[in-house]
Amino acid sequence: MDLPVMPPVRPMLAKSAAAVPPGMLYEPKWDGFRAIVFRDGDEVELGSRSGKPLTRYFPELVAALRAQVPPRCVLDGEIVIAGGGRLDFDALLERIHPADSRVRHLAEVTPASFVAFDLLALDDASLLEVPQHERRESLVVALRDAAAPVHVTPATDDLAVARRWFEQFEGAGLDGVVAKPRELPYQPGARAMVKVKHERTADCVVAGLRPHKSGPVVGSLLLGLYDGDGRLQHVGVCASFPMARRKALMEELAPLRMESAEGHPWQEWASEEAQAADRLPGGPSRWTGKKDLSWVPLRPERVVEVAYDHMQGNRFRHTAQFRRWRPDREPDQCTYAQLEEPVGYDLDEVLGT
Fold this sequence. Notes:
Blueprint: E1 13-16, E2 25-29, E3 33-40, E4 43-48, H1 59-68, E5 72-80, E6 82-83, E7 86-87, H2 89-94, H3 100-109, E8 113-122, E9 125-126, H4 132-142, E10 150-152, H5 159-168, E11 176-180, E12 191-197, E13 200-212, E14 215-226, E15 232-239, H6 243-253, H7 272-277, E16 296-308, E17 311-312, E18 315-316, E19 320-325, H8 347-351
Parallel strand pairs: 1-12, 8-10, 15-19
Antiparallel strand pairs: 2-11, 3-4, 3-5, 5-8, 6-7, 8-9, 11-12, 13-14, 13-16, 14-15, 16-19, 17-18
């Protein structure tokens, strides 16, 4: 492979904002695997955000990209899987599998799509220094003949349209809106764009903690919600505390610590059968590898209000943010029923297909 922009490339990132800013170019924020596509003739490589190759996990995309994108180009975009008219991140996670036979089976039953939103190189020219709005125009021209599963993301410079996308597209499983300065060059690894994501709050049971890697202070709080059958399901973690707060939390939660998980709602967390039946902490993951996922059980008596952006199935998609303790709430009031459901929106409408 011999391109004007060579792998690996760290994708340009975005910093968070509370509202959609004026005067920029706007795109939907996709919820999938960020990927840089490198094509040089028959050679196609998919690079992840960390620089590790994704190529072997998406053979159907390699074939589609080889057939539909320019012979020599570098594209920035997102690998997604659609199911039931919305994005399905769980199906995407299943694709990261060590067995080639399993990967190829899933490529047939849950095929992925690639949504392009930037063009970093074309033919013999690097476009990294070209302004954002010009790269967008070149991207549209370069992929004008592309068809599913290769797409070009919608884009607009109309603030009102961007705000409408922010409200509507969540129903199709999208993450929010990305805003890009018109004159912005491509800056690998820099948080040069702006992302606006949904934020909601939920009251959760604090049922455990994980110590911080630096020592005997709180690393994260394990959160639970009761399902319709009265079982406490592990829905995610709350983290990102200042060090002083981590120490204070360890002392504050000390009276709730249990000697063992016996009698705890998640006492069967080490059992594969129990992990398959319920949402429990410490479950195996191809992402965590041999990482220590053990945890300290707490009596599930404290309620915390956390902020989250959206759900992935029956759990928080990303790490939740601590807002405040809720001594006025009883743990059994912390149920899935309190969670807001976004109004459904067909993913095909987003992609214009």
